[in-house]
Write a structure and sequence with these properties.
Layout: E1 2-12, E2 15-22, E3 36-42, E4 45-50, E5 61-66, H1 74-81, E6 87-90, E7 106-111, H2 118-128, E8 132-138, H3 147-150, E9 156-160, H4 171-177, E10 183-188, H5 190-199, E11 208-212, E12 225-229, E13 235-238, H6 244-250, E14 268-273, E15 276-277, H7 285-290, E16 293-295, E17 300-301, E18 305-308
Parallel strand pairs: 7-8, 7-10, 8-9, 10-11, 12-18
Antiparallel strand pairs: 1-2, 1-6, 2-5, 3-4, 3-6, 12-13, 14-16, 14-18, 15-17
Bound molecules: FE2/S2 (inorganic) cluster.
FE2/S2 (inorganic) cluster binds near residues 258, 259, 265, 267 and 282.
C-alpha cells in the first residue's frame, strides 16, 4: 500500500508520532487492537510499528517511533529523513498481538514505546464497556509518550524508573492481583518481557500475551546446511557467517522480511522436511515444537537439509 505522511508530532523526548493517510483519500483497511504495519524505509530496510490510533478511526493510521540511538538504523532513518507530504510504502495491518475481547478483565503492561499497542486496546475496551487496567513504565516524565491520552482514566498506573527516587513496575504484584481468568498483555524492552515470562503469572495457557518490539536475538549464522526449495527446485547452501535469509536473498529468492530479528513474523516460511533451529521470538513454544514453519531471518537448521515450501 502507498500512504502519505500527513503529520509528524513530537510525543516525548526521542518519540515522534506519524499520521499516514491514504494517497487517494478514502479509508485505510480496518485493523484490530495490537496490529502493526511494516514500513519500507529503503530497499532492504523495513521495520514494523504498532498502530496507535483508535481502530474505529478509519481515515488514517498513526504510528509512533522511538529514536533508538544505538539501534540498527530504522528509527534514525525515520526521525532524520521523513518529511510531511512524502509517500511511503506500507503493508496492510498484521496482528501478532491480538486481544481477547471477551475477557472478564484485561491487564496491560507497557514499557517505554511498548505503550503503543495498548492505546487501541484501551479504545476498543472502552467501547465494549469492558474492565481493564494499565501499568506503564517510562524512564522519566519527559520520555513518557501519550500520557495526555491516558489522563482521563483512573485505571492507569504510571511509574518512572530512570529518575532519582523512581521505581519499576512490580510485575509480580500486578500478576498476583489480577483475577484468575484475566488476560494479561506485556509489551516493552526485552528485560521487562523476560521478567514477565519468568514470573509466569500462573495463568491458564494463552492468558499471558507478550510482544517484542526489539530483541537480542541470537542469530543462527553457523551455516553448514542446505536448503531445498520445493516449489522452485533450487538447492542453496547456507555458509558459515550468513543467515538463512542472507543465503536466500543472495540466490535471488524473493522472501518478505521486515524486522530481521525474529519478532514480526513477516519472514515465516513453511517447513516441509528437516529440523529447524528456532531462534525467533515470534512462534509459540508449541509452534516451535511442531516444526511446521521457520523464521528465516534468524533461525537455522539442526538437520543437514531443510526443505522449504517456497
Ligand atoms: S523479518 Fe521479522 S521475524 Fe523475520
Amino acid at each position: 500500500m502507498r500512504a502519505r505522511l500527513k503529520n509528524i508530532r513530537w510525543e516525548a523526548e526521542g518519540i515522534n508520532s506519524y499520521i499516514l493517510e491514504p494517497v487517494d483519500g478514502g479509508l485505510m483497511p480496518p485493523f484490530d487492537p495490537g496490529a502493526h504495519i511494516d514500513v519500507q524505509l529503503s530497499p532492504g530496510l523495513a521495520r514494523s510499528y504498532s498502530l496507535v490510533n483508535d481502530p474505529a478511526i478509519r481515515g488514517y493510521y498513526e504510528i509512533a517511533v522511538h529514536h533508538a540511538i544505538d539501534g540498527r538504523g530504522g528509527s534514525r532513518h525515520i526521525h532524520e529523513k521523513w518529511q510531511v507530504g512524502q509517500i511511503l510504502d506500507i503493508s496492510e495491518p498484521k496482528n501478532n498481538f491480538p486481544m481477547v475481547e471477551d475477557a472478564s478483565h484485561t491487564v496491560m503492561i507497557g514499557g517505554g514505546i511498548g505503550i503503543t499497542p495498548m492505546l487501541p486496546m484501551i479504545a476498543r475496551l472502552e467501547k465494549l464497556g469492558k474492565s481493564w487496567e494499565l501499568h506503564y513504565v517510562a524512564a522519566s516524565p519527559e520520555r513518557a509518550a501519550y500520557v495526555d491520552r491516558l489522563s482521563d482514566y483512573d485505571r492507569v498506573e504510571i511509574a518512572y524508573d530512570g529518575i532519582p527516587g523512581g521505581r519499576r513496575l512490580d510485575l509480580k504484584a500486578i500478576c498476583a492481583a489480577a483475577p484468575a481468568d484475566a488476560h494479561l498483555y506485556c509489551c516493552g524492552p526485552g528485560g521487562m518481557l523476560d521478567a514477565f515470562v519468568a514470573i509466569n503469572c500462573d495463568r491458564p495457557k494463552g492468558h499471558a500475551h507478550i510482544e517484542y518490539f526489539s530483541a537480542e536475538t541470537e542469530m543462527a549464522t553457523e551455516g553448514g546446511y542446505t536448503l531445498e526449495l520445493a516449489r522452485s527446485g533450487k538447492t542453496i547452501a547456507v555458509k558459515e557467517g550468513e543467515t538463512m535469509l542472507d543465503a536466500l536473498l543472495s540466490a535471488g529468492v524473493n522472501v518478505g522480511f521486515a524486522c530481521s530479528e525474529g519478532i514480526c513474523g513477516t519472514c515465516e516460511v513453511k517447513v516441509l522436511d528437516g529440523i529447524p533451529d528456532h531462534r525467533d521470538h515470534f512462534l509459540s513454544d508449541d509452534d516451535k515444537a511442531a516444526n511446521r514453519s521457520i523464521m528465516v531471518c534468524c533461525s537455522g537448521s539442526k538437520s543437514a537439509n531443510l526443505v522449504l515450501d517456497i
